[in-house]
């Protein structure tokens, strides 16, 4: 749930920079808008304050991060730099500090920066001015960093453009090394993650700070000073020669090599951590060297828990240390939770994805665990994100949501469209004043709108009517002597679209224009009717396959075109708005919730919510262009043309998935603060699912499984 802050966030507006603009040097009485943050702008505070971005997607993520109920940021609201990690800035503050340039450059956020430092909700009930107690693991890492900085200062190494002249004193270690080791082994001595038991060992802390390899010491400096090109060359020298790493390989380009400069961090939030596949042999090599004496170890995996493993290594000298593959919350590994989140937010089938992992020999949780994680954490977080998005839409653009209907609430599937319409209009009546409604030619919908909402303009989608006419003409062309109809099908469908777009809201004119096509196909272009006397096209000089008036094809076409039911609906063709975007949304729904796959109601609703989030975020994508500015197109072969024709379609810019980040944040918040255990999550789910309709099989007659098996096995069974 979003929480209200108990103080005023902004006392008066002032001019500081927004994303991508330098910070202002004017310090007025301004507070950070994040919940629980008491940072204020002031000279000497060392903090920067940033405007909320104008981009709607980024702005929603910033608003969600603030955790404040019904919060709409204005021009005077800011977020302080405490909530942004170093990767959010154009210039790394740590690098600038190392080079002594921290006061020469202003902090500037990247255009797509999102606050990624988790808020500390533990301070809510206490004195927010009091600094929070530092956890033991973080305190030890912080103490190690302080000792490391003090050690580097005592060395008094001058900064030089040439890094090859830096010498490493041999007396840094508290204990003499017993043997000479190469760089590869030294790097493996100090893995970035340590268990809580190892962190309490004073020897490990001292070894971490004082006994360091040459490669580890130069990592901080080379990454910051050395050029990317020279570093890439060094990385390429360490990669073994392999035929898969040829220069013309599309999958292993320069981008893959550049990721070798990524600096591993220990302060990354669980939902933002990168995940890497590590083979069994590489893991054995990593854990086969004792971190105390560098002797050979025998690593053993103590237990699995989905993607999580816990290992123990013991050397010949009796030293023993443990290692875990990932952080956990209580006993739940974070990667298990976010893997389940990724399966749902990508629209994949869990059974197939788990089978892929099984085929890879990748350690993974079972389908039962996935169903539990989905029900307890992923589904509530996805629906919560959609509810927030829906409220924002109703507030900002006054647009209505989509509704889903379970078929056991109505008489049959043919009644579901009317039931969905009633539910949607009932929901919107308190938020939006509906003046115009565009639907297909559903008979129940037509009657409902005529009887209950006669004051509203009810139009029909042109595409649906044109498609229905085309199908009927296609069927007629297959009859005896009907082959002359086929060349006219596309032209008549186009005529339907032209009739709607050129007649505005004049129903009689639409009917007159539509009926004129019966004379047009017989090469008659005048004296159609009083409302529309003649065709508007130029004289036709080329020879066409005109249809003789009174012939069999002419009678078949006239019967379809001038059908009383069709002509009556032609008057209600929508002159402007169409349901094409709704058809696109239906295709998105089919991706996230395939019709061939069974989902229970909560999972189905969550997948529909994700589909709506994806559609809203990507429905306005622009046409892609090349580097030279030329618009890009792609060739498409319509299925209806059976390969006889091809068309070009504009290529769109790649889709974005910012909504996934918001869902992952909601999942993390639900597990870490709202429902920290399975039991609390189960109790919360039981409350949330009170309004869930009963399954369709609830009304079926129940049979005993044993009796069905006996009947199936009996040779005398009668079907």
Question: Which terms would index this structure?
Answer:
719 residues; mainly alpha; three-stranded antiparallel beta sheet; two-stranded antiparallel ribbon; 25 helices; disordered N terminus
Number of strands: 11
Helix content: 40-55%
Q: Classify the beta-strand content into a percent band.
A: 5-15%
Strand order of the largest sheet: 3-4-5
| Biggest sheet features | 3 strands, antiparallel
Shape: globular
Secondary-structure content class: mainly alpha
Radius of gyration: 34 Å
- The span between the termini is 55 Å
Let me know the average pLDDT. Answer: 76
Q: Compute the number of helices.
A: 25
| Uncertain parts | 1-27, 122-133, 153-257, 399-412
Question: What's this model, at a glance?
Answer:
This protein is mainly alpha-helical and about 725 residues long. Among the domains are: about 1-125, no CATH class; about 140-240 and about 260-345, no CATH class; about 460-570, no CATH class. The chain has helices at about 55-65, 95-100, 135-155, 185-190, 195-200, 200-210, 215-225, 230-240, 255-260, 280-285, 335-345, 350-360, 365-395, 415-430, 445-450, 460-475, 490-500, 505-520, 550-560, 565-570, 580-590, 600-620, 660-675, 680-690, 705-715, and strands spanning about 50, 80, 295-305, 310-315, 320-325, 330, 330-335, 435-440, 455-460, 635, 645-650.
């Amino acid at each position: 749930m979003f929480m209200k802050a108990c103080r005023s966030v902004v006392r008066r507006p002032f001019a500081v920079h927004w994303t991508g603009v330098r910070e202002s040097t004017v310090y007025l009485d301004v507070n950070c808008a994040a919940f629980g943050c008491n940072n204020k702008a002031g000279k000497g505070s060392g903090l920067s304050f940033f405007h909320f971005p104008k981009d709607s997607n980024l702005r929603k993520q910033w608003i969600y991060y603030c955790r404040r109920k019904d919060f709409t940021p204005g021009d005077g609201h800011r977020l302080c730099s405490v909530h942004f990690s170093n990767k959010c800035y154009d210039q790394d503050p740590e690098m600038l500090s190392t080079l002594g340039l921290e006061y020469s450059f202003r902090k500037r956020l990247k255009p797509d920066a999102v606050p990624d430092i988790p808020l500390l909700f533990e301070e809510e009930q206490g004195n927010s001015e009091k600094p929070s107690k530092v956890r033991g693991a973080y305190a030890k890492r912080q103490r190690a960093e302080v000792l490391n900085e003090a050690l580097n200062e005592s060395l008094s190494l001058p900064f030089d453009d040439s890094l090859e002249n830096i010498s490493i004193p041999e007396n840094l270690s508290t204990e003499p090394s017993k043997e000479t080791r190469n760089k590869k082994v030294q790097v493996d001595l100090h893995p970035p993650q340590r268990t809580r038991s190892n962190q309490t060992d004073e020897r490990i802390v001292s070894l971490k700070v004082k006994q360091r390899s040459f490669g580890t010491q130069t990592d901080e400096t080379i990454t910051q000073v050395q050029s990317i090109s020279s570093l890439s060359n060094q990385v390429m020298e360490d990669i073994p020669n392999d035929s898969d790493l040829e220069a013309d390989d599309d999958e292993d380009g320069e981008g893959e090599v550049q990721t070798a400069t990524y600096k591993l961090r220990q302060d990354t939030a669980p939902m933002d951590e990168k995940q890497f596949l590590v083979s069994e042999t590489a893991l054995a090599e990593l854990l086969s060297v004792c971190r105390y004496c560098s002797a050979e170890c025998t690593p053993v995996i103590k237990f699995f828990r989905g993607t999580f493993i816990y290992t123990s290594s013991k050397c010949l000298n009796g030293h023993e240390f443990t290692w875990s593959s990932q952080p956990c919350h209580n006993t739940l590994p974070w990667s298990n939770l976010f893997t389940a989140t990724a399966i749902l937010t990508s629209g994949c089938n869990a059974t197939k994805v788990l089978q892929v992992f099984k085929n890879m020999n990748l350690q993974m949780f079972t389908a039962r665990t996935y169903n539990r994680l989905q029900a307890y954490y992923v589904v509530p977080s996805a629906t919560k994100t959609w509810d927030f998005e829906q409220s924002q839409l109703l507030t900002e653009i006054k647009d209505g949501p989509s509704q889903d209907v379970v078929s056991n609430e109505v008489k049959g599937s043919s009644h579901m469209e009317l039931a969905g319409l009633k539910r949607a209009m009932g929901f919107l009546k308190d938020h939006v004043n509906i003046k115009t409604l565009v639907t297909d030619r559903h008979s129940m919908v037509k009657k409902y709108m005529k009887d209950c909402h006669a004051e509203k303009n009810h139009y029909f989608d042109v595409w649906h009517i044109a498609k229905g006419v085309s199908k009927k003409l296609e069927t007629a062309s297959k009859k005896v002597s009907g082959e002359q109809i086929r060349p006219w099908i596309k032209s008549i469908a186009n005529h339907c679209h032209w009739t709607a777009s050129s007649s505005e809201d004049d129903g009689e004119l639409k009917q007159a224009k539509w009926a004129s096509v019966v004379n047009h196909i017989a090469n008659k272009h005048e004296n159609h009717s009083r409302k529309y006397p003649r065709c508007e096209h130029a004289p036709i000089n080329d020879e066409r396959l005109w249809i003789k008036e009174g012939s069999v094809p002419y009678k078949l076409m006239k019967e379809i075109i001038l059908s009383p039911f069709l002509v009556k609906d032609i008057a209600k063709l929508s002159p402007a708005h169409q349901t094409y975007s709704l058809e696109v949304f239906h295709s998105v729904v089919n991706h996230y919730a395939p019709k061939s796959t069974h989902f229970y109601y909560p999972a189905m609703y969550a997948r529909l919510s994700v589909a709506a989030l994806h559609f809203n975020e990507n429905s306005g994508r622009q046409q892609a262009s090349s580097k030279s500015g030329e618009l890009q197109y792609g060739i498409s072969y319509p299925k209806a043309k059976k390969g006889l024709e091809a068309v070009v379609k504009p290529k769109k810019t790649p889709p974005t998935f910012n909504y996934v980040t918001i869902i992952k944040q909601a999942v993390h918040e639900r597990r870490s603060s709202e429902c920290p255990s399975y039991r609390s999550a189960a109790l919360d789910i039981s409350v949330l699912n009170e309004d869930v309709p009963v399954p369709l099989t609830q009304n079926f007659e129940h049979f005993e499984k044993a009796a069905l098996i006996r009947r199936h096995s009996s040779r005398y069974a009668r079907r």
